[in-house]
Amino acid sequence: MNDRPFFVGYLPIPGPLRLFLGAIAILLIAGFGAAGYVAGVTQDDPGSGAFRFDYGRQTVTGVVELVPYPIVHVVEGNDRIDPGDTFMMTAGGKSGVDIRAEPLSGQLAQVSGIVLERGDLYMIQLRGGTNGLQAADGAFPQPESEPLGRWRLAGEICDGKCLAGAMRPGRGLAHKACANLCLLGDVPPIFVSTQPVIGDEFLLVTGPDATRLPKRAYDFVGQYVQVEGEITRHGSLLVFALDPETLELTP
Amino acid sequence: MSVKYIPVQWNRSKWFYDAVMLAGVLLFLAIFLFAAPGLVGHERPISAQIHNARAFGACAFVMLSIILCIGPLARLDDRFLPMLYNRRHFGVMTVFVALTHVSFILNWYFTFSPNPSEIENLLRANTSYSQIGGFPFETFGIIALICLLILAATSHDFWLKFLTPPVWKRLHYLAYLAYAALVGHVVLGILQDQRNHALTVLFLGLAFLVVALHLVVWLRERAEADAKGGAWTHVSSTKDLREGFAKIALLPTGDRVAIFLHEGKVSAISNACAHQNGPLGEGRIVDCLVTCPWHGFQYDVRTGRSPAPFTERIPTYNLRLRGDLIEVHTDPNPPGTPVDPLTLPEGAA
Amino acid sequence: MTLPEFLLLLLRIWGSIGTVVVLIFLAWGIDRIDEDAQGAYVFRLLLVPGILLIWPLVLWRWWQIETERVAWFDRYRPSRRHGPAILAMSAAIVALVVIGLNARQYWPKDIVPVQLSERQ
Asked: What mean pLDDT value characterizes chain B?
C-alpha cells in the first residue's frame, strides 16, 4: 500500500508534505514574478507619436481641399505651422471631419485644435463644431496639385490618427480592429512606406480617382503589403491613390 | 443526509492556497505594470490602457497555463494533489483577471467610435475571417472568455450535484477549448506584432509545457491500462456460485455487482434495483428473472431489463473467465445493454 | 440587419430568457429539486451568472429531475472522453502555433519604392 503522507484538505497538512508545498508556493510566486518581468521588459518600443498638448491649441487659416479626405493648405500659419504646409484633420475619438469640411471645400477656413505628431507626420484633432473648423474671410491662392506618376510601394496601411500618436503603439496587427474602426469612422488612412518616397515616409492613401479607401484594402490594414498606385503632390502632402487589384502581401 | 449550501467554503488550507496564488498574480502585475516601464528605455511609454490590457492578458494566460498543468502533475506525483484541491478558486481568479483585460481592450480599442456599442464595434471592426494574417483574433479571445465564464459560473458545489458529476465533468472539458482558443488568440494577435521574441518563447513555452504534460500522462495511463488488460478485476471463483443465486462483489469503483449463475451460465448486473436500490444480489431467479427481495421488481439477468410492459433498466457488466476465476470489467454497460452470458466449462460449478 | 446586430440580438434574447429562468428557478424550482438548497439563500446569488449562461442545460436537468428520467446509475458514470479532449486540444494548439508563426511577417525594409511610369 501507499504509505506516503495523505492530504485531506480540511485536516492539518502532514509534515513532509508541508515542506514540499512550501517550496512549490515559493517557486510559484517567483515564477509569476519572473514571467511578469520577462513579459514586461520585452515590450517593443511603441514609437514616438503623441498628442502635443504641450504645444497648446493651434489656430491657423487655410484652404480646404477634399482628396476625398479633407486636407488643409495653410495660408496664414503660426510659430509652429508654416504657410504652405498641408495637413490632415480628425475629430475627437474615431471620427473624421468630413461632414464639417465638405461645405467648405475650396474655401478659406479657420482651423483650430491639438497637434498629433510623429516625426515628420502631423495632423490636427479639431475642436468641436465651428470652433474647430469655420469659414474665414480673405484672399487665398487655389491649391495646386502635381501628378508624380505610377509607383509600386511596400509598407503598411494604417489609420492616420492612431499612427500619429493617439495610441502607442498605433499600428500593426494587434491594433488592426481599432484601425479599421477609425477608418470606418472616416479618419484619414496613411501608408507607411518602407523607405522614403520623394522624401516622405508617410503618404495619405486613397482609392483610385479620389475615392475613399476601398473595402478590399481593409483586409490588408496592419499587414505588410506591396501595392501600385498614382502619387500626386497636394501642397506639401503626398497622396497615394492605390490600385486595390494590385494589393499583395510582401514575402 | 444533507448539508446546507454556503456561498464560498474556506478553511486554513484554502486560505493559504488563495494567498499564495494571489501573491503570485499581484507580483506579476506589479512588475509588469510598475517596474518594467522604467527598465525598457522607450522614448515614450506605451499607452496606459494598452499596457494595462497587455499585463492582465499575459497574466491570465500564465494563470490558465498553470491551472492546466496541475491536473497532469498531480497524476505524475501525488504530492501535487493539494494544488488540485482548491483549483476552482484559482480558476475564478483567472476569470477576473481575464475580464479586466477585456474591459481595458473594450474601453480603448472599441470605444470613442461614432457607434457607441463597444460589443458591436468588436464584432464589426475586423471581418477578415478568410485570412490568417490579420484574422480577427479577438474571436478566439471571445471563445476563451465564454468558456472560462461558464467554468467559473458553474464552479459552486451546487452545480456538481445538480448537473451530476459526469455532465459537470464534460462541461468542464471546456477548459481545454478555452486554452486552445487562448493560444490562437495570442499567436494570431500579439505574437504577429511583437518584434522581441522573448515573449514568443514565454507564451509558446507555457503552451507546449501544457501539451507535453497532458500527452505524457495520457500515454502513461494508457500504457498502464494496457498492462492491466483494461479494468478487469476478479470477483469470484467458478466454484463459489450456486444455481439461481448470486454472489455480490464490491468493485474498485465503489459499485456493487451481482454475479448470477442461471442454467449453467453466468451473468453480471448492478446490485442496485432501479426502484429503490434494493439489493438484487440477495434476491433470486424466479421464472428466469432476477427478483428483487424488497419489492419484487424483476429483471432479465442477461439484459438488465424488466419484462414488458415494464421499462426499468439496470446496468449490466461484461465477464470473462481466467482459469477458474471469473473477472468482471469495472465499467458498467449502459442500463439495459444485453450481454452474452458466460458459459462455464463442464463440471466447473 | 448586419451580422453584429444579429449576434447582439441573439445575446439579448439569450439573456432575457435566462433572466426569466433565473427568477423562476431560484425562487421556486431549486427548492423542489435540491433539499440542500432549502433555507440557503445567499449562495443563490452565485448561481445567477451560471444560469444566465447555460439556462437550456438548467431547464433540461430540472425537467430530468422532476420527471425522474435519470437512473441513479447515470450520476456515477464517469466520462471517458478525457483522452480525446486532451488530444484535440494538443492538436489544435500545435496547428495554431504552426499556422500562426508561418503567417508572421517581417517589416520589408529592403523593398524600395519603384516608379513605374512618369507623370501623365
From this structure: 88
- Report the percent of chain C where pLDDT is more than 70: 89
The pLDDT-based confidence of B2 (bands split at 50, 70, 90) is: very low
**Structural domain range at position A221:** 145-249
Chain C nearest-CA residue for B214: C86
Query: Residue A93: inside a domain, yes or no?
Result: yes
Q: What are the tens digits of pLDDT across the range C29-43?
A: 999 988 888 888 999
Residue of C nearest to A233 (CA): C119
> Is C61 within 8 Å of chain B by CB?
yes
How many whole angstroms separate alpha carbon B23 and alpha carbon A173? 33
CA-wise closest residue to A234 among A48, A99, A106, A119 = A106
pLDDT at res. A218: 97
Domains and CATH numbers, chain B: 12-227 (no CATH), 232-343 (2.102.10.10)
* Least Cα separation, residue B6 to chain A (angstroms): 16
pLDDT at A13: 72
Nearest to A113 by CA among A136, A140, A134, A99: A134
Cell of B226: 494496457
The CA-to-CA distance between both ends of chain C, in Å, stands at: 44
Q: Give the other-Cβ count within 10 Å of A91's Cβ.
A: 24
pLDDT in tens, A211-238: 999 999 999 999 999 999 999 999 999 9
Rounded Cα–Cα distance for residues A190 and A118 (Å): 12
The pLDDT-based confidence of B278 (bands split at 50, 70, 90) is low
Question: Among partner residues B3, B191, B192, which is closest to C36 by beta-carbon distance?
Answer: B3
Complex ipTM tops 0.90: yes
Whether A111 and A65 map to the same domain: the answer is yes
Residue pLDDT, tens place only, B99-109: 999 999 999 99
Nearest-neighbour CA in chain C from A225: distance (Å): 9
In this predicted model, which residue has the larger pLDDT, C82 or C15?
A: C15
pLDDT at B324: 81
SS3 content of chain C, % helix, strand, coil (to 5): 70, 5, 25
Peptide bond into B309 cis (omega under 30): yes
Residue B1 predicted with pLDDT over 70: no
Residues 50-89 of A with CB under 8 A from C: none
* Cα A248–Cα A123–Cα A69 angle in degrees, nearest 5: 60
φ/ψ bin of B54: left (φ > 0), alpha (ψ from -120 to 50), beta (otherwise): alpha
Chain A residue with Cα closest to B112: A93
CA-to-CA dists, residue B269 to A49, B139, B292, C55, C75, angstroms:
75, 49, 12, 36, 17
Count up the domains in chain A and report the number: 2
Q: Do A152 and A229 have their domain in common?
A: yes
> Which of C106, C112, C115 is facing A195, going by the closest CB pair?
C112
pLDDT level of residue B81 (50, 70, 90 thresholds): confident
* Best residue in B15, B42, B84, B137 for a mutation probing chain A (most A CBs within 10 Å): B42
C13 in contact with chain B, both atoms CB, cutoff 8 A: no
Average pLDDT value for residue range B138-165: 93
Of B232, B234, B237, nearest in space to B324 by CA: B237
A95, A116, A135 - which closes a domain: A135
